[in-house]
UniProtKB/TrEMBL annotation:
Residues 456-526 form the Protein kinase domain. PANTHER family: CHITINASE (PTHR11177), CLASS V CHITINASE-LIKE (PTHR11177:SF369). Residues 26-379 form the GH18 domain. GO terms for molecular function: ATP binding; chitin binding; chitinase activity; protein kinase activity. This is Chitotriosidase-1-like protein. GO terms for cellular component: extracellular region. Residues 1-23 form the signal peptide. It comes from the Eukaryota. The chain crosses the membrane at residues 384-405. InterPro entries: Chitinase_II/V-like_cat, Chitinase_insertion_sf, GH, Glyco_hydro18_cat, Glycosyl_Hydrlase_18, Kinase-like_dom_sf, Prot_kinase_dom, Ser-Thr/Tyr_kinase_cat_dom. It comes from Cinnamomum micranthum f. kanehirae. GO terms for biological process: carbohydrate metabolic process; chitin catabolic process.
Amino acid sequence: MASKNILVFSFTFIFSQFHYSTAQIWVRSGYWLAGSDFPAADINSALFTHLICAFAEVDNSTYQVFIPSSYAQNFSVFPSVVKRKNPSVIPLMSIWNGQASTGQSIRGDPVNPSVLSSMIEQPSTRKPFIDSSIKLARLHGFLGIDLFWLWPNSTDLSNIGALLDEWRAAISSEATNSSQSELIFTMAVRYSPSLQSVSYPVDSIKKNLYWAHLVAYDYHLPLKEKFTGNHAALYNPSSNITTDFGLKQWLGMRMPANKLALGLPYHGYVWTLVNPKDTSVGAPASGPGTTLDGSMGYRFIKSFIQNYGYGAKPVYNSTYVVNYFIVGSTWINYDDVETVRAKISYAKEKGLIGTNVFAVINDDNWALSLAAAGVTDHKSKRKLLLIILLPIAFILIVVATVVFYRRSSLFKTKKGDAGTIILGNRTLSGSENLDGNAPTIQAFSFAQIQAATGNFSNEFKLGEGGYGPVYKGKLPRGQEIAVKRLSASSTQGLEEFKNEVSLTARLQHVNLVQVLDSAVRGMKRC
Ligand SMILES: *[C@@H]1O[C@H](CO)[C@@H](O)[C@H](O)[C@H]1NC(C)=O
Ligand SMILES: *[C@@H]1O[C@H](CO)[C@@H](O)[C@H](O)[C@H]1NC(C)=O
Ligand SMILES: *[C@@H]1O[C@H](CO)[C@@H](O)[C@H](O)[C@H]1NC(C)=O
Ligand SMILES: *[C@@H]1O[C@H](CO)[C@@H](O)[C@H](O)[C@H]1NC(C)=O
Ligand SMILES: *[C@@H]1O[C@H](CO)[C@@H](O)[C@H](O)[C@H]1NC(C)=O
Ligand SMILES: *[C@@H]1O[C@H](CO)[C@@H](O)[C@H](O)[C@H]1NC(C)=O
């Protein structure tokens, strides 16, 4: 009988849909930086599915992965510490190319021979790297390994396919040998698979990685460009340097969407405008503002707005999907809650596996991560509604048909009601108006820093770093600061100092405040 067939069909439909929806997990991963003063115990792990402990390094003679001794304790306790608030969070260990090479890559400077470049050249140097990475991850209780390599050049990328093949094979065989579940395997990749004649081996990436983290930020930097630019825009009608363009390139090269996690920067950039009245994207700028390279963590941007905003409000621009804060000649673009929500809706719509935060330590009271967790998935809600409604509709039709045929001998046809369900389409965007009359803010001067730190007096001294002493201080409006002064006698040069600065935004935390005042005055650098 026809009605029986319809019933069987509708139940099959229910099960196939349930199977499909439970198989999909929405990844919310984030980097934490060992050596920051943001304790891993303070991470709200409930807001994440995967937390990545950064960074393990590679020995330049043995090519073995190791944890710098000063971070050993932080790495060994990380997996158990993050599981306290969320027992199901998955801890990963991330490996990078060291501070110097990573700093140079971020600035776009040519990278001197790097340890990863030497390691990747030969199978005999890849093996100790791979084997030691697995051993080290297991030793400390990590359930996955991540490679954070900014940025391999074309020579490196011609070998990276082989590295990933061998690495994944070793990961699989180690799992079999040890009867444990396989370590998760991820890697950070550029927002676009081919840039400046450099192309990623997409086949190897999709075959070997569980997924890749799209580094979808740092597109325009105030140290490099004398024009304001969006550093992490989703769209731009007049430029291809956007996340949407890069993602489409990846998908166009047959990278599966569900093997990509969208990078969410928890930092922004500050430009100093040449003309405070010209605040457009592409307006002339004289360079970075407020910090040495213009980078600023979200938490610091929020406190900057409070301390120096004089009531001006951030603006959300849904054309680019970016937030701006403009006051006087200070022009900041960053991701606030509106931007984060819009990017997550976008990532879900494109079928990505999830998102990746860089870095969790820059959030402000978890405002961004809470906003990220709060984005409802319209697509799966709709799917759930279909899963529930469709079988009910089928059953009703079957029942109605049976009833109709039974009664058709007695009654004439009666017209039924047709109901329409309209699913709402809530917009997540909104924009605020900028207070155009905001007064010009004062730039930090050397004299102000002298005043704030009691002329670098011992009383204000917090400690001594590799480059020189670090002082605490207080600005006139009450903001607490830390000032790092590069001592004239420091054996470490400006180059190392620049590398540290390049990483500042990404490594910012409570006591490592923005590097203030970039000028190198005689032998005094601070
Ligand atoms: C890292 O480990 C050191 C040494 O045990 C500890 O003092 C410090 O608080 C840890 N840092 C963080 C951010 O957890
Ligand atoms: C290798 O690492 C050691 C210790 O970090 C360092 O002193 C040395 O300069 C490095 N060698 C090269 C060739 O980079
Ligand atoms: C890539 O970088 C390595 C050093 O890290 C260098 O030896 C090699 O020549 C570079 N290749 C290209 C094409 O620039
Ligand atoms: C797993 O065991 C096989 C056979 O004993 C060995 O060849 C292989 O190297 C082992 N793999 C790892 C990663 O230890
Ligand atoms: C963007 O890229 C496409 C295809 O590569 C090209 O045709 C187009 O001219 C580019 N647009 C801009 C604004 O650069
Ligand atoms: C975003 O900014 C651009 C450039 O200033 C402007 O043309 C566009 O109208 C803005 N979009 C919104 C939604 O405000």
